[in-house]
Amino acid sequence: MTHPTRSAPRLAPDRLGDETLLLLPEEVLLPEGCQTHQAVLIAAGKFQEVGDATTLCRRHPELTPIELPGQLLMPGLIDTHHHLTQSLGKSLVFGEPSEIFKRIWIPLEASLDEELLHLSAKLAALEALRGGFTTAVDAGTRSAADMTAITRAAEETGLRCVLGMICNDLGGGAGDSDPEARTAILQRAERHLAQWQSHPLVSPSLAVSIPEVASDAMLHAASALSAEAGGIFQTHVNEHLQAVERSLVARRQRPLEHLHAVGALGPQALVAHATLVTPNELNLLRDTGTAVAFNPVASSWKGNAVAPALQMAALGIRFGLGTDGTRSDGFRLMDAAETSQRLTVGLASGDSSCGGGWLWLDHATRASADAVGLKGLTGEIAPGLAADFLLVDLDVPEMTPSWDRPWELVRYANRDQIEAVFTNGRLRLWQGWPVDWDARALLREVREAAGAAVERAPIYRVHPPSSAHRETVNGNQEIGAELTAGAARRT
């Protein structure tokens, strides 16, 4: 069997619908890098064999190999921090100052009924898959509607989802919660962990929005329950200066120190952001085995700082890349991760490499899988793991000629190069669109429903939309010009 060449016929989606597939891509992204002359055998939703193309084809004469010229087969990307039920808001938060969750996200999510919850999650799942993410970690919704609406969205789109259930037992003030209320929340948490334990796409998780909205007892219990169930405990931490200072005033501890003091850190914990961290807190993350969701686009758009990801990598702190629901484009996320470290660390220290490209690929795939509790299930092209993968078109001007594929994927690759998206060995998207459901109909539903949903929510924006902002700026400039001219005439 010869290796596929660029002159072979282009791929068609109807050839990828079988349960058993023997694929011969031009390149395969393995832990050691991009390899040629490889074949990948997929059956029963998993990678069964990965190895030399000639050998695998001889071993399976009953199968017709599918040649994939000009295609890279790579692991699906993993979004370690998302908010699937915020997609109806999107650019409402653009240009807003920090802690937008208080003024925009909590009001919006709290106003969603089950139908809107499903609609929002399905739209977010579609965006994630289009951006190359085969897995997204949902941090939990503030909607009181049944969370099965989110799992239905995952099932219908094929997105693998780590589904967080929020366990907040305080209203944001200091003090201890009502023991009966805490018990009721923990009972629901136990049911949540049991309900999704064996689901083919959904893995359960527990979450606290930020440490200050949960009692010490709840923080400890939710983290412990997650560990017992083999899941993860999620919380936002050290993201905004205001939250750090509130914690210092209330407890004389920074948020990460608070979590450590109550026994909530550990290998089961995934803390989102961790941008404002001291050397001591970095040591806490390392020594407890706690994982971090590094969200570089969120830092750029509305954060107070950038997480020291290169230092985390050097210390052996577990971390993966997350979007925080900003934009679901996996290649741009990796580019943002590298760029953030280049601007905050590399320029000042003379580090021109800032991870060498491969670091960001690794932390968008297998390291992310480890961070979110899915190691051994997904994140690599390896026998026994779920067949969650992408086919990426390499036959494009931007990646020709190729001298260093990992760097090219981080800095040059684009979402529009993703030919196919698979989860559990099943083709979900072809050239950006679902193969078995009507995404255009979903977009029409969203357009019809979003306006009323946003209008109903008690959202408060500090800044006007960009067009109104432009008029204000232009008006101020005209006033300034008139005042200057008047002063000139008087002199």
From TrEMBL:
Alphabetical list of InterPro entries matching this protein: Amidohydro-rel, Metal-dep_hydrolase_composite, Metal_Hydrolase, MTA/SAH_deaminase
Pfam families per record: Amidohydro_1 (PF01979)
Alphabetical keyword list: Hydrolase
Domain Amidohydrolase-related: start-end pairs: 73-426
KW Cell membrane (keyword) present: no
Coiled-coil regions listed: none
The UniProt record lists the keyword Hydrolase: yes
Superkingdom, natural source: Bacteria
Family (UniProt): Belongs to the metallo-dependent hydrolases superfamily. ATZ/TRZ family.
Protein name: Amidohydrolase family protein
Organism in which the protein naturally occurs: Halomonas flagellata
